[in-house]
Amino acid sequence: MGYNFKETMSKPERLAPGHRMCAGCGGTIAVRNVLRGLHEGDKAVIGNATGCLEVSTFTYPYTAWEDSYIHNAFENAGATLSGVEGAYKALKRKGKLAEDYKFITFGGDGGTYDIGFQSLSGAMERNHDMVYVCYDNGAYMNTGIQRSSATPMYADTTTTPVGSESNGKPQNRKDLASVIAAHDVPYVAQTMHDWNYDSNPLLVPEARRDAVTASYAMYAMIHHHALCYSPFGIEDLGLEPEALPTPPPEMMAALNIDPASFDIHGTKAALGSVYALLEEMRPLYLKYRGTRHMQCFLKHSEEDKGDYLRFQNFDIEISYFPKAPGCPLSAGVIYELSESKFLIAGMMAQFTFHPKAGENKNVGFLRKESGTVRDGRWETWQIQNGDENGHMMAVNQPTCFYFEMYKY
Asked: pTM for this one?
């Protein structure tokens, strides 16, 4: 039978909304997709090693899990579910249980690669009929970004800092898939989200300190709803640029790291302004996220020259500025407040309004204002002339504009 994406995505959710995981978290995205692999009539028992997923989805007496759920300690998720699966088989043999169940365990990389590895290995060696899912974010994120055996070599964590005395984690990342395959289990797989391009806004900021981080933060927090996003090493922004610890040139070359990533000239001001504006815009992006009334733009690479965003009654052409030292990249968000009213916040870009394709009309401004957003509400600083059809964003700070448009 062929895979029907629409049918799969229309299945009832087995992880209920309203839990305490951060919006956009990769852990819950992975869980929801794994659980969609179950048939609607299937019954399941879910195990969960201690970690972000457990503490945020199961706070007694509340749970986000629609299936039977067991919270385990860090070290025994594999043992617990293998024991439940063994008991289930025994009850089936004795005729005391007629229903069929599936068994799935979730654990982070700390609870899988390290603390819980012995019980996982035992469950795999005994070939229990269960699925173990490791959501791997490369460190002990729940307790402060300490290194794990899933952390890549040279990574900067709180226990393997990059600086003049350390080059980051000195060991290679453990190849867990190969280790589990060596247990001769029926199926081993590795998956990842489609976030693997070089300038991925959800991954790259954690490896850089320059002003580009501000652009990625704005795009990641709004477009991907990663509300807990914070670049690793943000505490370094209090240092003078010359005092910032940087990896040796040979290490940056070996890992293909852009040396400009550690140039913090302009970063503090740009990133601080972005975070302040994001906090004020919170009511807007909570209202419009997931709709076509909020669209974001980001310059992903030097070859990326712009974007063309289509709204209900107007289209907006965005031209990106070239990358400049000490400046963020082109990035921002456009809110369509009504058919003719727009709020734009962004930087390093020029935008032009157009009529919809096929319309033999011109566009003009009824009102054009510069200002800012306070608690989701527009605050006017200056009313500008309305005879221009484009406007440039500020170079290194997010700037906000409000427009009322018309066609003639």
From this structure: 0.56
